[in-house]
Amino acid sequence: MIETVNIHQAKTNLSRLIEKAAKGEPFIIAKAGKPMVKVIPLDQPSDAKVQRIGFMAGQFSVPDDFDRMGRDEIEGLFGA
């Protein structure tokens, strides 16, 4: 579980908290109990850096006629 500290605790123990974060132990700073920021080491990938597009590349193929599949049935249903 990630440690959560309030702003006052973070200011008081900043050096210790930074050392822990640099060793791979992130922490959260909260204000009035509401999480505000997450401190992580610079070399740790953040969620924003995770590549989602293309993650299944090569695992399936799309037929060349994909955009025409079922055209007759769709036209029959919607009278196009």
UniProtKB/TrEMBL annotation:
**Keyword entries, A-Z:** Plasmid
Sections of the chain in a coiled coil? none
Family annotation (Gene3D superfamilies) = YefM-like domain
Q: Which domain of life is it from?
A: Bacteria
InterPro entries reported in the protein's UniProt record = Antitoxin_Phd/YefM (IPR006442), phD-YefM_TA_antitoxins (IPR051416), YefM-like_sf (IPR036165)
Instruction: Provide the family line.
Output: Belongs to the phD/YefM antitoxin family.
Describe its function: Antitoxin component of a type II toxin-antitoxin (TA) system.
The protein's name: Antitoxin
